[in-house]
Amino acid sequence: xxxxxxxxxxxxxxxxxxxxxxxxxxxxxxxxxxxxxxxxxxxxxxxxxxxxxxxxxxxxxxxxxxxxxxxxxxxxxxxxxxxxxxxxxxxxxxxxxxxxxxxxxxxxxxxxxxxxxxxxxxxxxxxxxxxxxxxxxxxxxxxxxxxxxxxxxxxxxxxxxxxxxxxxxxxxxxxxxxxxxxxxxxxxxxxxxxxxxxxxxxxxxxxxxxxxxxxxxxxxxxxxxxxxxxxxxxxxxxxxxxxxxxxxxxxxxxxxxxxxxxxxxxxxxxxxxxxxxxxxxxxxxxx
Length: 287
Fold this sequence. Notes:
2 strands; mainly alpha; globular; 53% helix
């Protein structure tokens, strides 16, 4: 076991203080688009439905696909099912799947240590989102940590072109909004389903890096700052039971106590019931 987390940090080295223009510009554009989506002229019930459905698809793609399935191999599915789940996760625009998985595996190796790229000991804002706007030294370790994915042409292609998935989605929504005469038109549907959805998904999933390393309770004495935070668990479909996860990272089930409801775990159980998931790893809580 590692030593207890030291919460004092040296200032960032000069090489990490500059902002990455591409990532910063993209995040700024998405947040501006999200604000425009909330203007009254773009409101419609169809837009709300599109947002809710795509939120469910995207968050499950991240939690069940990129995280529990691919990063930790907590259960096994067929190649077509895995690729569908990964495509769902790629809709979150949180980098390509190889980079996402590599950085998350790196985080588990060095959680809340100085070389953790979203080290919570540097403050909640750094852990929440600021880390990604600056050069990330951990990226140099991604290839070493993702050899299982590097061999698959599908993962290599999607890692490079994941942003393109928004184009057919946006085109389909715009077409429907125009022909159906939705209030706000096709543009309204696109604004609600892409920038507004992405911004909500961003901040919700980023809470796992920030809030669950600061607020809540601990079932286990893991050597990091991870905590179980019920409201983050609701928003992230179970990822908020973070202390449980850091203690048993290869468990498909994160909510281990009777009151720790884990929506992603319920979906995994459904896949297992349907015969689509097997070799499901499951930790348990013992008081």
